[in-house]
Amino acid sequence: IFDLYLEQKTINLELTYEESGFLKSIMSDLLYEKEFQIGSKNKDFKSFVNASNYHKYFTIQLLEKDFSVSEFEQYLKGDITEFKIKLREWITTNKLPEIIDRLGLIVDFDYKDEWEKQYEILFEIAKHQINTSGQFSVNYPQLIQVLNYPVKRVNNIKFFNNIKEHENYILDLFKNAKSPYVLESSILASSLVPGVELNINDQNEIPKLLINYLKTYCSEHNEITQEFRLLHRNCLERREGDPYDLKIIPQAEIVFKDYFKKNLSGSGLGSFIRQTTPDIESFILDTEWIMNIFNDIQGLKVFLEESESVKIESNHYFEFVKFLQEIQSRDFKPTNFEFKYLHPSRWI
Questions:
Q1: What span, in angstroms and rounded, lies between the C-alpha atoms of 124 and 80?
Q2: pTM
Q3: Which residues fall within 8 angstroms of residue 69, CB to CB, at 6 or more apart?
Q4: What pLDDT is recorded for position 25?
Q5: Which of 37, 32, 69 is closest to 49 using CA atoms?
């Protein structure tokens, strides 16, 4: 379109052929995605062709969300610990989107330590995203692609002598993950989907790692947390005969229920009650959730009688018992009830 515009201007004698050619060469140069360095597949994140850079060519100073290219390159080439410290500072000043854009342009590595630094930085960003925006805010295929980088070309393996050596490296990386294991668990669960697999030849290794994360977490904690729920949700394996059909590992269900019942507090009993209609204080028991944990209402009653931990928050405990008695007297039909301590699941 720009070329046609210039041609029309030239035909109308508003521009000379030399002026038109000069303007075309400038535009071509601006829109060409330059290499970060000669011979590299990495792209220069300063290029005008990147949409996030447009405003920088027309403003006198950097906006608050922008940051110095030289500063970014300096920390990227430096110590990983210093980069992580600086990364937290950049995040607090809303520079994360630009950091992610810049890192996304780095797809080639000459040295092993460059590759390791890239995935460590991406891991750090992903952990922040999970903590602030949830598990599904992370680009897991990108992480897996970076981890698989050394073996993406079978006839040109980088940093390792062979594929098996890289596989052992990846397995050790995940085996040595630090608590709470949520990011590592999420990456492994994502890699079970065909097309985005990690270089782990024995796919049975992944469920083993996932269930081990859950068991280890349960041995280290005594509260029902979001991390605990995510680790359980990630305990997946492929259903036999269909690699696209994933199911919860049966052993994970046992671990989940045992830990849940052991650490359920009085205030946690509110999760077994749900509101029936918005703006009306009418409630029912969440029988599906009760069946999942206690098998039936009788199992719930036995738990309430025998559990000591659930009675510690006595106000919550007795309020739940009162609600249970009242709704049972109504044949478990929706019941109006004013809760003072418990927080049932409500319509949003």
A1: 11
A2: 0.79
A3: 45, 46
A4: 77
A5: 32
